[in-house]
């Protein structure tokens, strides 16, 4: 399907189906343009070309079934309409602009809503190229498929294009990049007075041709080119050239007066629909957009924060109250507008801003009333439990700061009582362990410094909790492996310090041996291995 000029010069062809002595009413074209894919960046060109294609096919006498940016369901419905109209038609064309996916010999025309990263999704949701070619083969020698590729990256194992399946007998298949393909069809192929085979030889080298083309008939019927509305009737080719020149001049200027001049000369011309669309767009662009209207309000960042706070209060998630209108805020505004039966533009005008503020004010008054009522029922008691109940329900309520301050005082008093009780217990026992226990529970307690002094006085060789933790951390940083631990235990045992079983596991017995060794060697005695201990044991 990808070989250049892979066609036979026989008389059964698309051209035979579009020209000659057969009545034009027997011609049916399905024209679809899909560009609104999730990652599409193709711009408006293909959609604008769609209208030109419709005019061009109709100018040649085709009955046209058409659609733009179709979902899978919409494509199936349109294809059903095409199939239903096929029976009384002698000439058939499917002209598709958009993306196609392939896997081996199989190909599919992609709807705009079909995921393009899974073969199964594409196979089930998209339109199979093979099936469409088989449909066209119902009119052998009188049918064609034209694929104008807008491009786009697909995920493995899917590839771009129509696949490598066989083309049924009598079907012409053209494929190529969107602009080159559609320009060739509109500017040359549909209006050529030459045999189709000769016209195809002039196709851009980016266009792939397969199937059957005629050597002795043309695509353009004798009456297919519209004549101007005034003056002496020129030849069909001269008429088309004049119309295209006038249209090209209007497109280059982009001015309403030039589009109106085209329509005055060619009210039913090939580009008439597009000219009306351009005029409508120019009229719409002259009116202020929703963004322009909101910008004119001159909202400051503080104003935007209030709007976000009002939306949040009414239950619309702005994803933050920061005075920056991002996607979250625009979505929240749109959702609020939709709930008010307004056009959900995501931008506010003065009337909407006032309505939003009024709704938020009413909601805020209701919440404040509920807040005060709950505070009177709970927080006023001053108890820890009631204060916590209020904060659980209204963490940012009217009385939240007062409740937090009162709760902090209660908790501070409770902590001081617990601190004093623990100290009284430690003094009662008056042992190094009792003071160590106090320090473990209250490392920054009222009596912490006194407790440290008592520990040192009662057990000079012992470590304070923070000292012991520092020694543990120092040993951990050494990253001693089992072999090194075995060697340390072995050296301790050889030096007369009993480490217990030499197995690489540092037990309480091992710690006592390490501590005794450190003390004997003048190393700070912690019972944990540090770099000085390692050097002394393994290198001394």
Strand order of the largest sheet: 1-11-10-8-4-2-3
Instruction: Give the terminus-to-terminus CA distance.
Output: 82 Å
Rg, Cα atoms, Å: 42 Å
Mean pLDDT: 84
Provide the low-confidence segments as ranges.
1-24, 222-238
* Count of distinct strands: 11
Please bin the fraction of helical residues: 40-55%
Under CATH, the topology of the largest domain is which?
Rossmann fold
**What is the CATH domain class of the largest domain?**
Alpha Beta
- CATH architecture call of the largest domain: 3-Layer(aba) Sandwich
Number of domain units: 4
Brief summary:
The chain is of the alpha/beta class and 540 residues long.
Give me the secondary-structure topology.
Blueprint (H helix, E strand, L loop, with lengths): L5 E4 L4 H5 L8 E7 L11 H15 L3 E6 L3 H15 L4 E8 L1 E4 L2 E4 L9 H7 L1 E2 H8 L6 E7 L9 E2 L10 E7 H12 L6 H6 L6 E6 L22 H18 L2 H10 L6 H15 L3 H6 L5 H13 L13 H13 L10 H28 L6 H10 L6 H30 L2 H10 L6 H11 L6 H14 L3 H13 L13 H14 L9 H9 L1
Parallel strand pairs: 1-11, 2-3, 2-4, 4-8, 8-10
Antiparallel strand pairs: 5-6, 5-9, 6-7, 10-11
Helix pairs in contact: 2-6, 8-9, 9-10, 12-14, 15-16, 16-17, 17-18
Can you walk me through this structure?
- The structure is a single chain.
- The protein has 540 residues and is of the alpha/beta class.
- The chain has 4 domains: 6-221, 3-Layer(aba) Sandwich (Rossmann fold); 237-286, no CATH class; 290-377, Orthogonal Bundle (Muramoyl-pentapeptide Carboxypeptidase, domain 1), CATH 1.10.101; 465-539, Muramoyl-pentapeptide Carboxypeptidase, domain 1.
- Helix content is 52%, strand content 11%.
- The chain has helices at 14-18, 45-59, 72-86, 119-125, 129-136, 178-189, 196-201, 236-253, 256-265, 272-286, 290-295, 301-313, 327-339, 350-377, 384-393, 400-429, 432-441, 448-458, 465-478, 482-494, 508-521, 531-539; strands spanning 6-9, 27-33, 63-68, 91-98, 100-103, 106-109, 127-128, 143-149, 159-160, 171-177, 208-213.
- The chain has a 7-stranded mixed sheet, sandwiched between helices. A 4-stranded antiparallel sheet has the order 7-6-5-9.
- A hairpin with a 2-residue loop joins β5 and β6.
- α2 packs parallel to α6, α16 runs antiparallel to α17 (432-441) and α17 (432-441) packs antiparallel against α18.
- Residues 1-24 and 222-238 have low confidence and may be disordered.
């Amino acid at each position: 399907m990808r070989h250049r000029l892979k066609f036979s010069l026989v008389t059964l062809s698309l051209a035979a189906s579009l020209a000659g002595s057969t009545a034009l009413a027997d011609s049916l074209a399905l024209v679809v343009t899909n560009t609104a894919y999730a990652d599409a960046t193709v711009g408006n060109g293909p959609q604008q070309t769609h209208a030109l294609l419709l005019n061009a096919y109709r100018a040649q006498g085709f009955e046209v079934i058409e659609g733009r940016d179709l979902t899978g369901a919409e494509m199936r419905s349109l294809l059903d309409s095409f199939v239903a109209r096929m029976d009384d038609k002698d000439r058939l064309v499917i002209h598709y602009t958009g993306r196609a996916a392939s896997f081996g010999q199989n190909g599919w025309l992609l709807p705009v809503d079909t995921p393009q990263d899974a073969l199964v999704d594409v196979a089930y949701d998209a339109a199979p190229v093979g099936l469409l070619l088989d449909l066209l083969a119902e009119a052998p020698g009188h049918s064609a498929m034209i694929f104008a590729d807008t491009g786009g990256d697909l995920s493995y194992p899917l590839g771009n294009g129509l696949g490598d399946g066989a083309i049924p007998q009598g079907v012409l298949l053209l494929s190529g990049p969107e602009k080159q393909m559609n320009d060739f069809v509109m500017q040359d192929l549909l209006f050529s007075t030459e045999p189709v085979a000769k016209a195809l030889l002039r196709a851009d080298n980016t266009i792939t041709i397969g199937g059957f083309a005629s050597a002795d008939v043309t695509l353009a019927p004798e009456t297919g080119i519209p004549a101007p509305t005034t003056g002496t009737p020129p030849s069909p080719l001269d008429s088309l050239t004049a119309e295209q020149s006038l249209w090209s001049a209007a497109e280059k200027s982009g001015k309403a007066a030039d589009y109106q001049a085209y329509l005055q000369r060619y009210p039913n011309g090939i580009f008439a629909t597009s000219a009306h669309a351009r005029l409508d767009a120019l009229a719409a662009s002259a009116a202020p957009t929703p963004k322009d209207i909101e910008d004119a309000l001159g909202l400051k960042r503080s104003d935007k924060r209030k709007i976000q706070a009002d939306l949040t209060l009414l239950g619309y998630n702005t994803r933050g109250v920061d005075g920056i209108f991002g996607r979250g805020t625009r979505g929240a505004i749109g959702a609020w507008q939709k709930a008010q039966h307004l056009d959900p533009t995501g931008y506010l005008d003065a009337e909407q801003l006032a309505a939003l503020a009024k709704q938020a004010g009413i909601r805020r008054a209701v919440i404040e009333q509920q807040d005060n009522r709950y505070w009177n029922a709970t927080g006023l008691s001053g108890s820890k439990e009631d204060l916590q109940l209020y904060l659980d329900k209204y963490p940012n309520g009217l009385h939240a700061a007062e409740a937090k301050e009162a709760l902090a005082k209660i908790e501070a008093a409770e902590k001081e009582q617990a601190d004093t009780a623990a100290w009284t217990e430690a003094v009662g026992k008056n042992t190094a362990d009792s003071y160590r226990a106090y320090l473990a529970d209250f490392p920054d307690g009222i009596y912490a410094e006194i407790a440290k002094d008592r520990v040192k006085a009662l057990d000079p060789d012992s470590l304070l909790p923070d000292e012991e933790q520092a020694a543990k951390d120092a040993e951990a940083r050494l990253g001693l492996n089992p072999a090194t631990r075995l060697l340390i235990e072995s050296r301790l045992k050889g030096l007369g310090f009993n480490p217990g079983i030499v197995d690489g596991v540092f037990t309480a017995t091992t710690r006592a041996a390490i501590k005794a060794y450190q003390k004997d060697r003048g190393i700070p005695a912690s019972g944990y291995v540090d770099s000085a201990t390692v050097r002394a044991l393994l290198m001394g």
